[in-house]
Amino acid sequence: MLAITAVLSLAIGAGIGYAIAHISGSTSATTSGSAPILAGVSEDTVCRLVNDAMQQQLSIREASPLSEENGGAACYLMMTEDGAAEPAGFVVAFYPTTASLQQTVDGTDVIPEKAEPLLIEGRAAARQVLYGDAWKAQLTIDVGDGATLYVERFGPKDSLSERELRRSVDDLAASVLKGQKA
User: Per-residue pLDDT tens for 101-123?
Assistant: First the structure.
């Protein structure tokens, strides 16, 4: 059930965030035609986007990779034990093409907040917060050449303030991008 919920939320956030990021691009942001900062991410390597030190800092108990049919790869970074009644953690996913990202959209939704365009490490991004039994902050980032990085933070309703939820997803995304530059 957790995997289904995570895949659905991944699809929703990725599609909405992609649209907002590309519609509201800034002249100072890196464009989708630029050289990609991420490439060759697969099921075998996707969890390495979040280094061991960051996983320890986030209190990650388990990192589980998942390959997607559309060419993308995701890593579920769980902060709670497997089968927890109220799971909490992060999702980090990579979509190598615009088409692979667009194929994740399924049209279902919880109560969403309007997506916010922003820059993460100088790259066009869009963040959306979703409310329901679980709260989620979802962030899509243009990483160049049509590729997209997706980062999500999820947890039980009211377990984090809105500010903490937003900051945690932004911080993890910035960490992943900084790790690629190093």
Answer: 777 665 555 677 888 999 999 99
